[in-house]
Amino acid sequence: MATKKPERFDQVDWSELSESGRLDLSINSIGMVITSLPVVLLGLYDWRFIGDRTDTFEFIGLSRNLESLDYFFIFTLLLFFFYLILPLAQNPRMTKYYWKEFKRNRPAVVSLGWLLIVFAGGLLGPLVISAPEQDILIGHQPPVFLSVDAANVANCVGDIVGGQCQGTWEYPLGTTRGGKSVFTSIIYGMTISMQIAFITTTIVAAIGISFGTVSAYAGGWVDEVLMRFVDIILSFPTLLMFLLILYIYGAGLGMFILVFSLFAWGGTARYVRSKSLSVSEEEYIKASRISGASTYRVVRKHVVPNTASSIITQLTLLIPGFLLAEAQLAFLGLGDSNIPSWGQLISAGRSDLAFAPWIVLAPGIVLFLTILAFNFLGDALLDALNPEAEAESE
């Protein structure tokens, strides 16, 4: 007897259609496609009709011009939502168990709160706060509740008491030599840090998971060739390649993300390969093969999902390295001086440490706390999502 086809979109059993082989889609994938389409269309409209001279959202009163990196950042945020946040919401019992295990680590819970603040500041801050502007007449303003010798300040914005320029809430963390607000620069630096975190991990995950799973399942000479290529990637001097590209094309955040992510996926590929080999020996994988499932389906439906927890924790522990690398290069003067990153802010204040240490200390503390938070988060996720690794280490 023929079954009646559902008349409404939300009544379609996408999982059943996917398993039948007629359609290999899920609700999450459909949502990703639907929400990504307006972003792609906006990017094309921005590139074709608006150009660089006009702000993207000028028609609604926002002075904000989106670059190519911003569109890629939005795309990675959508990936993060539909393939990490939404699956947790769809599996409340599993999420409750993970959260119970995760919150046992108190430093990790605090770290998660700090990272949420950084994420919210980086995402919403540039929409409500104007970009830091240079005004040398207000350079070296001290932070609120602090004071500095008025002789070191060109034009004190606050009160002068006993020859000391007092800080004001107008510039809560003071200003740089060029008169840029340190607080505003830190907020915009949160955006840069989140772009580095999300985009690099997306590229590393895409390449590393692809190489690792193909190498594990192909075996033989394919495995040998791919692993030797991974050895080359791991031994390649990334800094040398970055300096070469810097000399040819100039500095830029996009170039930094591209170079460092393209040479950082080797460890992920090896990790995914080892996990895939261990998972492939499980009984449910053998049962799937016997039932006639294709290699692609086994990898996509079973291997990758069952190694996802280990991959997530491994990628989380990679992010601090990227943030620290950008700060180090900026401090050495090898980064893009036009981007308001924390590293650039630290670099701008290194010559003023004697009488304006807040320029270096404020972004330095924020960078330190963010890197520490990612490390705590990675360790806690490893214990919560992959308890076998904890048992093996004991």
TrEMBL record:
**Primary location recorded for the protein, binned into one broad class:** membrane
Got a GO cellular component term for this one?
plasma membrane
Q: Which CDD domains match?
A: TM_PBP2 (cd06261)
Question: What are the ABC transmembrane type-1 domain coordinates in residue numbering?
Answer: 190-378
Name one process (GO BP) from the record.
transmembrane transport
Query: What InterPro entries has UniProt attached to this entry?
Result: BP-dependent_transpt_permease (IPR050366), MetI-like (IPR000515), MetI-like_sf (IPR035906), OppC_N (IPR025966)
- Family membership: Belongs to the binding-protein-dependent transport system permease family.
Name under which the protein is recorded = Peptide/nickel transport system permease protein
Native source organism of the sequence? Halorubrum alkaliphilum
Q: Where in the cell is it found?
A: Cell membrane
Q: Where are the transmembrane segments?
A: 25-47, 68-89, 109-129, 196-219, 239-265, 315-335, 355-377
Q: Name one Pfam family in it.
A: OppC_N
